[in-house]
Amino acid sequence: MTTETATITTPDGSFSAYVARPAHQPAPAVVVIQEIFGVNAVMRGVADWLASAGYLAIVPDLFWRIEPGIELTDQSEGEWKRAFELFNAFDVDKGVSDIAATIRHIRKDIGCTDKVGAVGYCLGGLLAFLTAIRTDADASVGYYGVGLDKRIVESTGLDHPVLLHIAEDDQFTPAAARDQIISALSANPQVQLDIYPGRDHAFARIGGQHYHAADAKKANDATLAFFQKELN
Question: What one-character DSSP code corresponds to residue 162?
Fold first, then answer.
């Protein structure tokens, strides 16, 4: 595996992206969509994990319009405060547009087979869901996406496969919202819903307060199986 920094250019400006390349190329690509902490060690770790599994991974800096190069952790009150400030200032629609630009960029890469998926966490879980609807990504995975219930009406336009990992006790998704999401999507043949009883938000974030090793592994194994089916 090798890593590098890429520059992605849009009509609005340019932003950076962390790239992890697998040992064997060309390979399917996966866009890794950040949490509210920016392109930090956790997100780079996800990209490295995907590269070790044989995927060309790219993590775009989606906060670049607010402040480029944000890299926070979940380990201090000050960082949480800043993360929520960024979340509240973030334009979801422009974020999806930047993801679409990232997909176009990586699809043209000599190391890509032309198949591109996406995986997102928290804020990125919502963006992965919208990526499946609004872009030409071949398959998308969302971990404990926040605010899906407010965007569920868009699922009528869903025509690419989606896997959603849902934490049953997610503190950022009330039970009524969770049930609305499940009810609206359970009959959609494009959607696979994996629900994790007793788990809270970010149960797959290594080092996080609610990290649960067994269910994180279960979710990650399901993600790799999903990508193996849809991208290879």
Answer: E
Listing DSSP states for 56-74 in one string gives EEEEE-TTTTT-TT-B--S
| Beta strands 56-60 and 13-21, pairing class | antiparallel
Closest CA to 154 of 227, 92, 103: 92
Instruction: State both tokens at 78.
Output: 């000050």
> How far, rounded to the nearest angstrom, does the alpha carbon of residue 42 sit from its chain's CA centroid?
12
In the block, tokens 């780079």 appear at 44
Please report, for residues 82, 99, 133, 183, the alpha-carbon distance to residue 87 in angstroms, rounded to integers and kept in the order given.
Answer: 9, 16, 21, 27
Residue 157 confidence (pLDDT) above 90: no
- For the annotated catalytic residues, the residue numbers are 170, 201
Mean pLDDT estimate for the chain: 97
H-only helix segments in 53-190 = 77-89, 92-107, 123-134, 175-185
| Residue 11 · residue 96 · CB < 8 Å | no
User: Domains in the chain, ordered, with CATH?
Assistant: 2-231 (3.40.50.1820)
In this predicted model, what pLDDT tens digit does every residue of 124-134 receive, in sequence order?
999 999 999 99
Among 32, 21, 135, 37, smallest CA distance to 81 is for 37
What span, in angstroms and rounded, lies between the C-alpha atoms of 119 and 51? 13
Let me know: does 86 contact 66? Beta carbons within 8 Å.
yes
For residues 18 and 39, the answer to whether their CB atoms sit within 8 Å is: yes
- Locate tokens 């990508």: which residue? 227
